[in-house]
Write a structure and sequence with these properties.
The longest helix has 11 residues. The protein has one domain: Roll (Pnp Oxidase, Chain A), CATH 2.30.110. Strands 3-2-6-9-10-5-4 form a seven-stranded antiparallel β-sheet, covered by helices on one side. It is built from five helices and 14 strands. The chain is of the alpha+beta class.
């Protein structure tokens, strides 16, 4: 089958992408508005960019039903900072409860019953239940696509502080079994990272 995205709706293209870009790590992003309102929202177009300086990216799409910019992006544009909280299975349902498009004054920490905890270098709160969190400052925001439903942005941030549960960290490595992260699939489906395989690669060619 060959599908020309130019001849499909953005909704159909979106379904193909989220059904085939798998599994996707989840960034639970906490921000604060200039008025002091907390916001907490998950994003699964998320990954690392580079390690010098340590930088990450995530892609907040415009709202699919009206094309408006989400509160997370508005807050980051205003404050130039945010926290990435890595999602473990034990608070996955609470994470999902933050994915509804609430009004800006609604605090998703209250909705989800997750616990805000003060960050060290920035004003945005971290999620206490997260075993790994990154305090980030904004590097750049890149608009992508149309300025309506289906369009979006790439947010690139520099990690200025890592918060890692002591039980996870050993000689520079993260214990993935103790972290127990989940990944995003399509629809209401998620995946665990509990079935891995090892394929060794050559560092340099012969």
């Amino acid at each position: 089958m060959i599908i020309d995205p130019a001849k499909s709706s953005f909704q159909d293209n979106h379904k193909i992408m989220i059904g085939s870009i798998l599994p996707r790590p989840i960034a639970l992003v906490s921000t604060i508005s200039l008025d002091g309102n907390n916001n907490l929202a998950p994003f699964s177009y998320f990954n690392g960019v580079c390690s010098n300086p340590p930088s990450i990216m995530f892609a907040p799409a415009r709202r699919g039903y009206d094309g408006k910019i989400k509160d997370t992006l508005n807050n980051i544009e205003s404050t130039k900072e945010f926290v990435i909280n890595i999602v473990s299975e034990d608070f996955a349902s609470q994470m999902v409860s933050c994915s509804t498009d609430y009004e800006p004054e609604i605090d998703e920490f209250n909705i989800s019953e997750l616990t805000p905890i003060k960050s060290t270098k920035i004003k945005s709160s971290r999620v206490q239940e997260a075993r790994i969190s990154y305090e980030c400052i904004l590097q750049q925001i890149i608009p992508v696509g149309n300025s309506g439903p289906g369009g979006g942005f790439v947010v690139i941030g520099e990690i200025v502080l890592f918060h890692i549960d002591d039980e996870l960290y050993n000689n520079g490595y993260i214990n993935i079994q103790k972290l127990n992260p989940i990944g995003r699939l399509a629809g209401d489906n998620y995946t665990r990272v509990n079935d891995t395989l090892v394929i060794k690669r050559k560092i340099k060619p012969d």
